[in-house]
Amino acid sequence: MKLIIKNGRVLLFEKDKAVVKKVDIGIENSxxxxxxxxxxxxxxxxxxxxxxxxxxxxxxxxxxHLAMNLFRxxxxxxxxxxxxxxxxxxxxxKLTAEAVYWASVLGIAELIKSGVTGFLDMYFFVxxxxxxxxxxxxRAYIARGLTDEPLGMEFQLKETKELYRKFDGKDGRIKIxxxxxxxxxxSPRYLKKVKALADELGIGIHIHLSETxxxxxxSIKQWRKTPIKHVYDLGIFERPTIAAHCVHVxxxxxxxxxxxxxxxxxxxTSNLKLASGFAPVEKMVKAGVNVSLGTDGASSNNNLNMFExxxxxSIVNKCVNNDAVSIPAETAIKMATINGAxxxxxxxxxxxxxxxxxxxxxLIDLNKPHLCPLHNPLSAxxxxxxxxxxxxxxxxxxILMENYELKTIDLEKAMYNxxxxxxxxxxx
Amino acid sequence: MKLIIKNGRVLLFEKDKAVVKKVDIGIENSxxxxxxxxxxxxxxxxxxxxxxxxxxxxxxxxxxHLAMNLFRxxxxxxxxxxxxxxxxxxxxxKLTAEAVYWASVLGIAELIKSGVTGFLDMYFFVxxxxxxxxxxxxRAYIARGLTDEPLGMEFQLKETKELYRKFDGKDGRIKIxxxxxxxxxxSPRYLKKVKALADELGIGIHIHLSETxxxxxxSIKQWRKTPIKHVYDLGIFERPTIAAHCVHVxxxxxxxxxxxxxxxxxxxTSNLKLASGFAPVEKMVKAGVNVSLGTDGASSNNNLNMFExxxxxSIVNKCVNNDAVSIPAETAIKMATINGAxxxxxxxxxxxxxxxxxxxxxLIDLNKPHLCPLHNPLSAxxxxxxxxxxxxxxxxxxILMENYELKTIDLEKAMYNxxxxxxxxxxx
Lengths: 428, 428
What we know:
The structure is a homodimer. By secondary structure, chain A is of the alpha/beta class. The first copy, chain A, contains 15 helices and 19 strands. In chain A, strand 4 and strand 5 (about 30-35) form a beta hairpin.
């Protein structure tokens, strides 16, 4: 299958600098094979006319819990502890594979419609989420959530191992991570076991770290060190690690993250909505820490819209740093693309439009009132664009959405079944 | 003309509390005449089926500069002073009536498409903006920007007076405000003249106040008082006043705002993007100050999307106040509707769906993946909904957008001409 995207304005990273150029893109099977003028006789099976479109790498959502779509708008404007203990946890105990399946279909529909081509998910019944990713064509990085439940410990590790054997590398789109939930839900003994498993399988680790002030205070009380120092001392960071949140990190924490090449999945909406705090993003970026973006789950966001995360990453940090130049559009867009690929250890294959990389590409429709006039396409993406401007989405060289129409998902069915499953859980 | 909106979930404010009920709405000419079961023999000319829609009062954008759409994405990620002196002001000197006309058409298209039924604009060549409002059917509150330019002083006041004579009350949709730009661009002598004019015409005042720390520091240095105390002492607040921004206000300032019934037009995106600061919104709300929402102009936002302002008003203040319960969805939605009407002194006529009020109503399409499941419609509006979910917009009983289609604006023409005028200004 050969595909050409022509006449578009293309967002390229040239020597790490974002530039927008009028070039055409040649795709063969899953890969980008030409960028520039397409060679004569390329013989495309299909030509996409990207006139008046911005062509850019798909977004990579590096922290989410897709199935929490079930709890979207179910419990808001509540204190964190009440939210978790009275609302979310009781429902999660009643979760079924079917509910996770449909919420994953809906979640992936929402991701595709907002320009996301790959995501890192941590949850339960993840085999369902993997199934949906395989069916719908999106790229999925999956961590079975691991917590120190009585009796659950060995079982969860075994499940991770089985998921790895069964799915890692499947269709070139699935990758398994070890997913210890957090140091406050996993004992040191368990974390060491997780690390040993990750070593054995040669996989990365995804973990929540330093999300709230309370978590850090508790850690210092219990272990006499911050959560980051705590898991560092347990050897977690010897594996490639993506740490979600990192809101309350001190200079020593940042030094550890940098030295250990730990990537931070920053979730601005969730951090704001749960009143977790303002992550010191500029400080981490300046220290050389790789910061990527995530939406977190729909129960704390409450959508899965990476445009909102890009927007907030830029404007919130400007205000926090009292500096209108902080986290410019280019930096925020990189967080959502190439930095996501770096976080997942796949920046050789993904995150930018370059010959040899996988064709995970989105087309943004510039023919919108809120994007006119188009003085600066990077500003347009960061400060103006909406999920609803995503016109076409390509993953692994296959078109998953074209002219706003999902090609691999029956959206009505997904909405109907997710609502049905949610109703069953909440008893509403 | 009689219109019925039926089968919708309708957002009502009952005894100040937001509730969502399945009721029908009967509209006769410009007014809502029935809410509930429509009486037999009502004899509608048209019935709108709002099945699977949320029907709510249109948003009121209480601070914008529509024509700054010309400078959208033209100058971002810059220091405020450079932005103003090197980029914005030089272009504003070259503004033409034609440019303002087309940018106003584009701006109003953007407003309608994001559910805004009325707006308060402060700028130059405002007669063009008024013309467009009259042509397109939207509700417009207009302040000719007043600054202490040499020779310009008397002329600007005369223009305000002429605008008032010519347009105030026109078609029941235009209202003129006096628009002294700010205390740092208007001398006390000028502010007194503005106040005298507002007294003479019996109109309200719209002014920028305490937007930046610098402004407050300069005011204290020059006048030994805050900008708010300064204009209070000059008598400005004896007129109904809408003060934009009020980011850096102290307890005494808040007390003055409350006692003088000054409304605050809070502009979260602009405040964040320009690194102006975090306005003490919760404190003002608790003190009883009426806080409404604005987008500011597209050069500092960079769109005119009230959904983003509602979202930010809620989530940013939660984080600032370290309290996930701060500014709940209901409060943020009121800021965008009934509080906007209060700010403009028209809450007897607008801002809620009640018998006797003007029919300024929007329909939000709930059949979207990011709004499913619909556990809570208020949360859905505040935390999930997008401008692109606005399905139908009614102003003054007339349909300005139906099934996503603008009825009074040629969007392609507006975009083409705005881009053309912007190009002429920037020379790009």
